[in-house]
Description:
The complex is a heterodimer. Helices cover 36% and strands 17% of the residues of chain A. Chain A is α+β, with helices and mostly antiparallel strands. In chain A, the strands form 7 sheets. In chain A, strands 16-20-13-19-17-18 form a 6-stranded mixed sheet. Chain B is mainly alpha-helical. Chain B is globular, with a radius of gyration of 26 Å. The chains are: A alpha+beta, B mainly alpha.
Amino acid sequence: MENRFGIKDFLLLLMLGVLIVVVLLAMKQYDRQWTVLREIQKQGLEQTRELSGIRRAIQSGGGFATRAPAAGAASQAAAAATQATTAPAAGDPFPLVRQAQQSPDYALGDWLVDNFGASVRKLTPLLGADQYQTIVESRVIEGLLYINPDTLEFIPLLAESYDVSKDGLTITFKLRQGVTFSDGHPMTADDVVFTFDWIMNPKVAAPRLRSYLENVGRCEKRGDHEVAFHFKKPYFNSVELAGTMGVMPRHFYGKYPPEKFNEQLGMLMGTGPYMLRDPESWRPGTRIELIRNERYWGEPGPFSRIIYNEVTEEVAALTMFRNGELDRFSAQPDEYVAMLKDQELLARTNHFEVESPLAGYMYIAWNQKRNGKPTVFADKRVRQAMTMLTDRERICKEVFLGYATVATGPFEPASPQADPNVKAWPYDPAAAKKLLADAGVSDRNGDGVIDAPDGSALRFRLTYPSSSKAYDRAVFLMKDMYAQAGIVMEPDPIDFAILQTRLENKDFDAISLRWGGGSVEGDITQMFHSAQIEDKGDNFPSYSNPELDKLIDQAKSTVDKDARLPLWRQCHRILHEDQPYTFLTNQKALSFYDKRIQNIKPSKLGLNYVQIYVMPIPWYVPSGQQKYKE
Amino acid sequence: MLSYVIRRLLLIVPTLIGITALVFSIVAMSPGGVGANLVSAEFGMRPAEREAMRKYYNDRYGLDRPYVVQYLKWLNKVSPVGFRAAGAGAGGGGFGFKRPDLGESFVRGRSVAGLIGESLPITILLNVVSIPITYGIAVLAGIYAARNRGKILDVTSGTLFLGLWSFPVILAGVLMIGFLANRQYVKWFPAGGLTDVLADAMPFLPGRDASGAWQRGWLLDVAWHLVLPVICLSYGSFAFLSKLARGAVLENVQSDYVRTARAKGVGERDVLMRHVLANSLIPLITVGAHILPALITGSVVVEQIFSINGMGKLTIDAINTRDRELFLSTTLVAGLLGLLGYLLADILYAVADPRVSYE
């Protein structure tokens, strides 16, 4: 009889399977050990190098001026105690951290566990260019200056001081002495010049950054600790342009040719308070863990680790925050309202509603020219009337549940660029109808629908990006508001990539979008200068006002802030009168934080620690409440 | 048999070309084209920046060339037989065998083969755990139901499995996270990911650490994170597989050879285990081959919900960002595995059942 498959064969197969699994698991464990071993080896090598450096310094009888890094909570508490009596010195790069250190429970330690709502694709600077990459990079790579969130002034960080020449064309930075990268190499002017030249190298995949810096002619080394940036023409934001460029270590990034550099995904090293455990080993899909840079030249980062998870599913992220697995949660208005009702959650967390110049604004742009012919929106009175027909208060209340305010112009209300005397156009259908009638737009044939000057019914399409609940709801509210006035609006939601081509071809009636605030002091050339109408510029509604053009040009080239701000305010008044956009809302950023994190305060930039900027973290966890120990 | 297999293998080539050509033209026809997303991925880009980006991508990936040329170039690149790039390898230029190259992801700027190499093991892990569970439960339930045909257990298990089969995974996953991984209700499982934040510092096996506190260990931590995703992956297949097992057992129980065996006086238990079961497993084995392509793409939803970076998430990401090279490659891999799976199934039919012949 032939041999049949029996219990014995099955057991044999099963054992074989178990054996394979065990071997695989053993391999995995060996791999884990190998990672740890490599790390220890690397640390050992670095310590040897450091020791030999110290030995050399002792032999040559000097070099004791470098400060010893403060380690451990105890020594830090002692340091804080002594500092309590000394006021922060002028030119101190860490005013906010010093303030925090004054509180008796200030301590180092614990982790900050955060979440990114998307997968990070690259960590290498210059190449990534999404906000998550920027957040991680800003902890690791520092610039010459940073923005103080309380005063919006520049504070020298890697620079000791800076100086702008009278004509505004040259900015000289004196670099701080004794700053090293996280691997112990000293930072010098060579690294700054290297960074600039590297960005400008056409082979490096940083086209966007390159065009951003095109106004900088060159970066010149003037000794080991001094660099000068030469600009082609005076520009109001030149200090920010040069000063916030992250300094990349030449010995680390320069070892690859540009083509090879472009393929690097996780190469991240700088002088900052945090670092990757291994500056080259990060791979997409693995959790991003930053550890404290113990060689940091300044005040050490408060958290011993910062961890960024990548939980994309919103329910999962919210659940994890509720469970205490995440320390921060950015909420949508509806989530925020629901979370405020949860007493148990409120007892464990703090919540913040802040306005920030970085939040941007939502608007409707009225296309004034189509196929070479002016549209009905080319008349200023029609645009003003459309704004008065839009009940923006109601949008703030019903779509953003009160966590938004009516926008009056392209500048955030608290921004020094905004004119506080500009009052938003009211919701006033009667006045709007009168303005429309003045412009020759009224219901002439008595069918209840308002007619354009050429006799056809006034109807238009409102294009807006699809897959956003907020836009959907706002647009449907507006459809009703316009319908009540006898204007037919057809909602036209489309995919963002297609929307982009429509914008470039100026192929729309009206479009609703939002602009994000790029920097503290915004440059409105891109949207409102008439030079941006041609050549696929961002003045897609073809708005043109020669007076505004002149003001913008003047403001942009005025380096003196006190002379410049009135010009921006004048721009604000003109835009309010002209209404090229119906400015809709400035939204608030809503966030929840775990209660153990102390010293979270509102600032002029939102909160007093803004992730997407390079800045020292003034937050901390008192030692009694620390959750994660090393 | 051999000639049949060779014929089928040769047929795979035009089928794959057809699949990829279709996918390629769909991407190419999408409004705005492939490049649209690359230049609009960031909001508020200045026109000069956008133009610079567009030019850079055109230079680098040849996106401004005719679509047919782009497709043929891609086809040549991934094919193991074709024109060699001039200057590459010993031969340099010319036509012949070469290394297939899946190209480079537009958005991530690295080799597609590397990306797939990182994601595939994670998806395979998920499936290697869930498929035996699915099969085990479904087959046992099916046999049990067949033996108790028409009784209350048969009816309830059938109804229950059908109910599970019709319950959408996307809802089940979110409900499980919301109720089973939530401090407000019960916090039995983690809400996402494959490892804990502390996992790297954990020992491998569970045990007590120096201070005597219980430590989960890396192995148990991964297993714990796998529970919810595996449940989501497996519950939907119970109905199909158990019905198949039940039907096969029933059919065999009523056949002549079983009656003969019983007439010979073979015990009921032996009849079932030795004769019926062996014959009933044939359809289940062949169905298994069809599961191969699902290995790659089947866990799309589950990976997305539980934030697991496997093939499914990679594919979704590629579609969302219109990362053509990556998307085409995942389609190619899934298509190839699918076709091989069907071929394997057909071969298994012949092996398992001598009546089937392809001569």
